Amino acid sequence: MAAPRSMVLTGAALFAGAVTMVALGSAFVPAPKVAPPPIAGALPTAALSAAALSVPTAAYADGGAVWVPALSAVGAGFAIGLAAIGSGVGQGIASGRCIDGISRQPEVADDLRGVLLLSLAFMESLTIYGLVIALVLLFANPLIK
């Protein structure tokens, strides 16, 4: 009795999924179209790449009046953002592994907890280093005279 009911429920779920995909099919982004041929007189890719590579050199032009503070703010944002993301992911993985270890061997919970807290402190110190780099780039920038 359970097998026919399971097959009916599985078929109903597949049918409902197919109906949902057909109904929401227009909500998805269409496939990209073929790129048109390049326009005559447009800049080639090599010229755009050379311009992109020369932007950091332009940061020192005109005494660095505009470019250095602006790029320093972007660098500070990347420093604190990447430090926070990396530390958060690492702490989540470490905490999950510690909980797995405690659930497997409850008798070593105190040892694992101590090692976890020490490793979390080291991971958080890396985030603080990212914060220090961001603050230096914003308020005590060595690139600005």
Automatic annotation (TrEMBL):
It is found in: Membrane. SUPFAM superfamilies: F1F0 ATP synthase subunit C. GO terms for molecular function: lipid binding; proton transmembrane transporter activity. One of its GO terms (cellular component) is plastid. Residues 74-137 form the V-ATPase proteolipid subunit C-like domain. Residues 1-27 form the signal peptide. It comes from the Eukaryota. Keywords: ATP synthesis, CF(0), Hydrogen ion transport, Ion transport, Lipid-binding, Membrane, Signal, Transmembrane, Transmembrane helix, Transport. The chain crosses the membrane at residues 70-94, 115-140. It is a multi-pass membrane protein. The keyword Magnesium does not apply. One of its GO terms (biological process) is proton motive force-driven ATP synthesis. PANTHER family: ATP SYNTHASE LIPID-BINDING PROTEIN, MITOCHONDRIAL (PTHR10031), ATPASE PROTEIN 9 (PTHR10031:SF0). Belongs to the ATPase C chain family. HAMAP family: ATP_synth_c_bact. F(1)F(0) ATP synthase produces ATP from ADP in the presence of a proton or sodium gradient. F-type ATPases consist of two structural domains, F(1) containing the extramembraneous catalytic core and F(0) containing the membrane proton channel, linked together by a central stalk and a peripheral stalk. During catalysis, ATP synthesis in the catalytic domain of F(1) is coupled via a rotary mechanism of the central stalk subunits to proton translocation. This is ATP synthase F0 sector subunit C. It comes from Alexandrium affine.
